[in-house]
Amino acid sequence: MNIGEVSERAGLPAKTIRYYEDIGLVRPLRSDNGYRAFRDSDIHKLAFLGRARTFGFSIEDCRTLLDLYEDETRESAQVKAVAQEHLAAVDEKIAQLKSMRETLAHLVDACQGDHRPDCPILKDLAKDP
Amino acid sequence: MNIGEVSERAGLPAKTIRYYEDIGLVRPLRSDNGYRAFRDSDIHKLAFLGRARTFGFSIEDCRTLLDLYEDETRESAQVKAVAQEHLAAVDEKIAQLKSMRETLAHLVDACQGDHRPDCPILKDLAKDP
DNA sequence: CTTGAGCTTCCAGCAACTGGAAGCCCTATA
DNA sequence: TATAGGGCTTCCAGTTGCTGGAAGCTCAAG
């Protein structure tokens, strides 16, 4: 199957698929004309990758997860460890954003937003600490 | 003042300060020996930038905010608009992360994390849609 | 036989830095 | 005065995960 169809089926841009090949996440065969020839297993992998990426896993995590997926002798603990670490990172990111959001919201709230130059937002940004 | 001291005072790595000069956010003078010579106003700007960055504003937003800060004829509405837009983006990001987090948490929860290969996380990643 | 879509490669660029190499400059000490 | 060190300079490359575009080959339809 050519890259165009694979792109549709896996829900990934062709560019991305080529990139994934570049970095060794998939290894499609080649037809005589030089076109990439994807097997069903490649499409499966690509869909897996696409889904893992929507969960926010890094490419390296995806590589690990894919390896585990293909490894019959894996232990689910290995998968869980990767996911748990990522979950922790996501939690931290959320906490960080929330705190940022609160400060920001207060400032926006305090700003009149009129034609005068006086602005608590700028005042805060300019303050010392 | 040399970059080392400025770095400490503004709380930004020297590398970052040089980068900010590169992209035109600050324009320190130069001493005869070629060293950057920062004025108080430069340090102020850098601190402003550092703080704006901790709020998650993009470099381009920072540039705008800095321009507004220096413009006596600004209207606070302009500042508020920038901040509000950013706040909306942050809110969206948080929502996105939260939804991701929930799915992820469910999967992690469902996974035994033992020595057996069976794993709902991988199962979910591999599923069709 | 030509047209157009689809495929190929390669190079560049995004954001916002960060690391490292090679080489001045300045001060202090032996 | 020589030298060792730390700080400063520039420039180039790498990070993450793609994305856009140019130049050129291939294939199917008309």
Write the layout of secondary structure elements.
2 copies of one chain form a homodimer.
Chain A: H1 3-10, H2 14-22, E1 29-30, E2 36-37, H3 40-54, H4 59-70, H5 76-110, H6 120-126
Antiparallel strand pairs in A: 1-2
Helix pairs in contact in A: 3-4
The first copy, chain A, binds a DNA duplex (30 and 30 nucleotides) through residues 2-4, 13-16, 18-19, 23, 33-36, 53, 58-59.
Characterise this structure.
- The structure is a homodimer of 129-residue chains.
- By secondary structure, chain A is mainly alpha-helical.
- Helix content of chain A is 67%, strand content 3%.
- Chain A has helices spanning 3-10, 14-22, 40-54, 59-70, 76-110, 120-126, and strands at 29-30, 36-37.
- Chain A has a two-stranded antiparallel ribbon with strand order 1-2.
- Chain A is elongated, with a radius of gyration of 23 Å.
- The mean pLDDT of chain A is 96.
- Chain A binds a DNA duplex (30 and 30 nucleotides) through α2.
Give unreliable regions of chain A as ranges. none
Q: What do we call the CATH topology of the largest domain in chain A?
A: Multidrug-efflux Transporter Regulator, Chain: A, Domain 2
Per DSSP E runs of 2 or more residues, the count of β-strands of chain A stands at 2
Computed structural class of chain A = mainly alpha
In CATH's first tier, which class of the largest domain in chain A applies? Mainly Alpha
Give the overall average pLDDT of chain A.
96
What are the secondary-structure elements of chain A, in order, as H or E?
A: HHEEHHHH
User: In the CATH hierarchy, what is the architecture of the largest domain in chain A at level 2?
Assistant: Orthogonal Bundle
Approximately how much helix is present in the residues of chain A?
Answer: 55-70%
